[in-house]
């Protein structure tokens, strides 16, 4: 190769002033000017001078006057404003001005002293100012607020979320928020007054986190999706505040963790309800209450007594709960749960999560339940009653517990607690429950007459005046069923009304015979001839004073 071919090109001479304009005398890389990024649809907060080292960096480090700072960061209000906050807010504004796009926050810890606000986006399908916000991981990209902004203030906010057209299309991903509380809160202790994520309609959140706030996620709006969200060590992990009249429901939560909170994993304002939600494989526990309705003045304008409605919980873990799974904080109780399905969900108590300022009365403690389906409770050995009952509900309509019902009755009997608290039952509201053990029996709650002995499992029950039940006799009173879970006079027993494998008390007798109501709650073989009255069922096995029958079989 010739010498000419190996000759080097002249090295460009860089002016030191240009370097300082791009890097800055403090060594932090930033653009030659904020104006250079105008029109960009992809902006990193580092491009605007964000530091992200977890330390205090006020604008006064770089600007001698507020006017100079506002030329780059129009949202700035003081030279004490954090550079990390100002750069993030400026990046959002730049992307919005370009018609929408993405703000990047690389891994680091960014300090903020004000709310980060996002612009609205028009209705689905229309071009708008959809601003996405991406980090590098919910525990890698962290935004921290060392100062509490106060009540009804949020760390990140969609400001017009209660407006009729307050829509915020877009994605928040891989961002973690840390509130002003210095330590994890103890049960019943409010860690901070400000909230974390101030949610607006139609946005999507994935792999984000919030901790050390009053509420990690404050939800107003509809048509939203949450995936792999972690909200823990707050007062409430999720909060449904006073709602928008225009945007409501249709929320999907997948594989989220709402745990370790001082009061409730999910809480509902007195004027709101948790409605139109689907939760799949979510963890909702590690707190005094899993789902709680806040107390409000009776009859106050705008109050909504519904706590939970039109929602589905599939394979969710209500684990390490201190005081109740479903709790109405009103006194007297008046909250309503309606049209809700709990399918293959797990529940377990924990003394570590218990708040001593309130009782642990029951797993569900509320006023009314309507059209509730509790299907296949998961790992029922852990589903123990509270200090008073398994369920404390005054009224019910068309509710059912299907699967592992025998295990639940066994747990209650072992703990010497009723399955349904009799003191809360009004009129015949206990009849609104259907209990079923697939393949074994189907039944209901039955109120035991006051003037009768206690009933025990295996008793044949007959109807008593006033729709009550009592131990069967050989008299003409119709058969009410077979006792599965006993109760004292005035208590609520569980009575099976149909099923292929019921055990009843019976004097020694033959198998393969019809049994009819006998004396003192027993069943006895039907007469060989003549009409049979008050048939209990067909016995296909009998030994030691017990018979196994197909209950409800004709004869």
From TrEMBL:
It comes from the Bacteria. This is Uncharacterized protein. It comes from Siccirubricoccus deserti. The lineage of its organism: Bacteria, Pseudomonadati, Pseudomonadota, Alphaproteobacteria, Acetobacterales.
């Amino acid at each position: 190769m010739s010498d000419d071919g190996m000759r080097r090109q002249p090295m460009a001479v860089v002016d030191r002033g240009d370097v300082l304009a791009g890097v800055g005398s403090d060594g932090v890389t930033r653009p030659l000017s904020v104006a250079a990024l105008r029109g960009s649809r992809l902006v990193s907060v580092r491009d605007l001078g964000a530091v992200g080292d977890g330390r205090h960096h006020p604008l006064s480090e770089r600007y001698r006057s507020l006017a100079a700072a506002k030329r780059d960061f129009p949202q700035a209000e003081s030279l004490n404003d954090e550079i990390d906050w100002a750069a993030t807010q400026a990046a959002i504004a730049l992307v919005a001005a370009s018609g929408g796009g993405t703000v990047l926050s690389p891994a680091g810890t960014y300090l903020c002293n004000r709310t980060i606000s996002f612009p609205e986006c028009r209705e689905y399908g229309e071009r708008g100012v959809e601003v996405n916000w991406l980090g590098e991981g919910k525990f890698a990209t962290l935004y921290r607020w060392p100062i509490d902004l106060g009540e009804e203030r949020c760390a990140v906010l969609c400001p017009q979320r209660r407006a009729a057209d307050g829509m915020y299309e877009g994605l928040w991903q891989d961002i973690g928020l840390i509130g002003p509380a210095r330590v994890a809160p103890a049960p019943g202790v409010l860690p901070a007054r400000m909230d974390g994520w101030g949610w607006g309609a139609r946005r999507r959140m994935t792999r984000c986190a919030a901790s050390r706030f009053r509420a990690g996620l404050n939800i107003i709006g509809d048509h939203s999706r949450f995936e792999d969200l972690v909200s823990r060590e707050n007062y409430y992990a999720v909060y449904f505040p006073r709602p928008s009249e225009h945007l409501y429901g249709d929320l999907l939560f997948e594989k989220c963790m709402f745990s370790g909170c001082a009061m409730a994993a999910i809480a509902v304002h007195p004027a709101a309800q948790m409605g139109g939600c689907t939760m799949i494989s979510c963890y909702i526990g590690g707190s005094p209450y899993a789902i709680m309705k806040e107390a409000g003045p009776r009859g106050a304008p705008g109050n909504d007594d519904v706590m939970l409605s039109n929602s589905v919980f599939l394979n969710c873990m209500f684990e390490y709960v201190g005081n109740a799974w479903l709790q109405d904080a009103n006194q007297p109780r008046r909250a309503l749960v309606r049209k809700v399905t709990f399918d293959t969900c797990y529940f377990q108590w924990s003394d570590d999560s218990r708040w001593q300022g309130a009782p642990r009365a029951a797993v569900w403690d509320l006023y009314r339940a309507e059209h509730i389906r509790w299907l296949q409770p998961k790992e029922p050995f852990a589903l123990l009653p509270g200090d008073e009952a398994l369920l404390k509900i005054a009224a019910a309509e068309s509710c059912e517990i299907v699967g592992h019902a025998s295990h639940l009755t066994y747990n209650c009997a072992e703990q010497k607690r009723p399955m349904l608290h009799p003191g809360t039952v009004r009129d015949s509201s206990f009849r609104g429950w259907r209990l079923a053990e697939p393949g074994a029996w189907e039944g209901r709650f039955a109120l035991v007459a006051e003037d009768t002995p206690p009933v025990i499992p295996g008793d044949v029950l007959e109807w008593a005046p006033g729709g009550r039940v009592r131990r069967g006799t050989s008299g003409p009173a119709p058969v009410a069923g077979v006792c599965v879970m006993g109760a004292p006079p005035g208590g609520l027993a569980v009575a099976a009304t149909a099923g292929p494998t019921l055990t009843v008390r019976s004097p020694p007798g033959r198998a393969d015979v019809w049994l009819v109501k006998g004396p003192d709650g027993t069943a006895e073989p039907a007469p060989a001839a003549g009409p049979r009255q008050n048939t209990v069922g067909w016995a296909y096995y009998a030994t030691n004073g017990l018979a196994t029958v197909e209950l409800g079989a004709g004869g």
